[in-house]
Amino acid sequence: GQNIDQPTEMTATEGAIVQINCTYQTSGFNGLFWYQQHAGEAPTFLSYNVLDGLEEKGRFSSFLSRSKGYSYLLLKELQMKDSASYLCAVRDLNTDKLIFGTGTRLQVFP
Amino acid sequence: GAVVSQHPSWVICKSGTSVKIECRSLDFQATTMFWYRQFPKQSLMLMATSNEGSKATYEQGVEKDKFLINHASLTLSTLTVTSAHPEDSSFYICSASGRRNAQETQYFGPGTRLLVL
């Protein structure tokens, strides 16, 4: 079966660092995506990991461990505009479909 | 700039009419396009998967005769909601999958809000 788990909600303070974890179990793995979705808007691509390790893009970094079925999204120097839902999605090897977690709603406070 | 576009961004129509939504990948060839629907405060729900030049594959519970999908080229897919009813009012989002800048990726369009009166 396929299962993606991530925390439902997180809070953090402006300027801080926050790590959003995602664990997954899939029958066929072909990469893991992180998306940001603000309320009322479509998801925005943040990162894609298919090999183990850390991918850094400015304030955002994403890590993948395929053997552990684990990924995290790291957000540094948090800004108020980072308040959004963060979606972890695993791509199925056979169908190319994205299997989404429920999303983590992050609230950044001043 | 935008990588995937959708048109229109907003549609208000009367019950019984058909609505066509276009999804374009702007700077890469999308081998596969996906159509999602999202109701307020709910997760994205995959409706169908389409590959260029072939028939779309619909998810369980999605009526293929109601939601017509055409994937005419590697950069364009259309979703037509036929005989729309108020319960079809939703946020429709496409995504395009392919290689962009030598990397596999999947980008979402900005979405189309459909309101059926």
Polypeptide structure, described:
The complex is a heterodimer of chains A (110) and B (117). Chain A is mostly beta strands and 110 residues long. Chain A has no helices and eleven strands. Chain A has strands at residues 3-5, 9-13, 18-25, 29-37, 44-49, 53-57, 60-65, 70-75, 84-92, 98-100, 104-109. In chain A, the strands form two sheets. In chain A, strands 2, 4, 5, 9, 10 and 11 form a six-stranded mixed β-sheet that branches. In chain A, strands 1-3-8-7-6 form a five-stranded antiparallel β-sheet, with no helix packed on it. In chain A, a hairpin with a 6-residue loop joins strand 4 (29-37) and strand 5 (44-49). The mean pLDDT of chain A is 94. The mean pLDDT of chain B is 92. In chain B, strands 2, 4, 5, 6, 9, 10 and 11 form a seven-stranded mixed β-sheet that branches. In chain B, strands 1-3-8-7 form a four-stranded antiparallel β-sheet, with no helix packed on it. In chain B, a hairpin with a 6-residue loop joins strand 4 and strand 5. Chain B is mainly β and 117 residues long. The termini of chain B are far apart. The chains are: A mainly beta (110), B mainly beta (117). Chains A and B meet through strand 4 and strand 5 of A and strand 9 and strand 10 of B.
Helices and strands in order, then pairings?
The complex is a heterodimer of chains A (110) and B (117).
Chain A: E1 3-5, E2 9-13, E3 18-25, E4 29-37, E5 44-49, E6 53-57, E7 60-65, E8 70-75, E9 84-92, E10 98-100, E11 104-109
Parallel strand pairs in A: 2-11
Antiparallel strand pairs in A: 1-3, 3-8, 4-5, 4-9, 6-7, 7-8, 9-10, 9-11
Chain B: E1 4-7, E2 10-13, E3 19-25, E4 30-38, E5 45-51, E6 57-58, E7 67-73, E8 76-81, E9 90-100, E10 103-108, E11 112-116
Parallel strand pairs in B: 2-11
Antiparallel strand pairs in B: 1-3, 3-8, 4-5, 4-9, 5-6, 7-8, 9-10, 9-11
